[in-house]
Every structure is written in structure tokens, then in C-alpha cells.
Design goal:
Elements: H1 3-25, H2 30-51
Length: 52
């Protein structure tokens, strides 16, 4: 795995962490929370795709 992919995955994981923490803190509507969950899942899938 090259360094560029590792860096990208690291950035994506950081974004996932931040989004998840904000999701836990916020008192958003269920629709907004669901959208955030879908976004987080897509970030995680990107990481998985980058690894393979």
C-alpha cells in the first residue's frame, strides 16, 4: 500500500471520527442523523475500497 493511500485513509478516518462525535453531541432531527449515518458509512466504504 502506498503512502498516498495511507494518508487518504487516515484523513477519511479522521473525518468519520469527527462526524460521528458531532452526531452523538447534536440534537438533530432523525432525518439529519440518518443522512449523517449514511455519509459516515460511505466514508468507511471509501476506506475499505482504498485498502483493497
Amino acid at each position: 500500500m502506498n503512502l498516498k493511500i495511507v494518508k487518504r485513509n487516515s484523513d477519511l478516518l479522521e473525518e468519520v471520527t469527527q462526524k460521528y462525535l458531532s452526531l452523538l453531541k447534536d440534537k438533530k432531527s432523525k432525518v439529519q442523523k440518518k443522512k449523517m449515518e449514511v455519509y459516515i458509512e460511505s466514508l468507511l466504504m471509501n476506506i475499505e475500497k482504498n485498502i483493497k
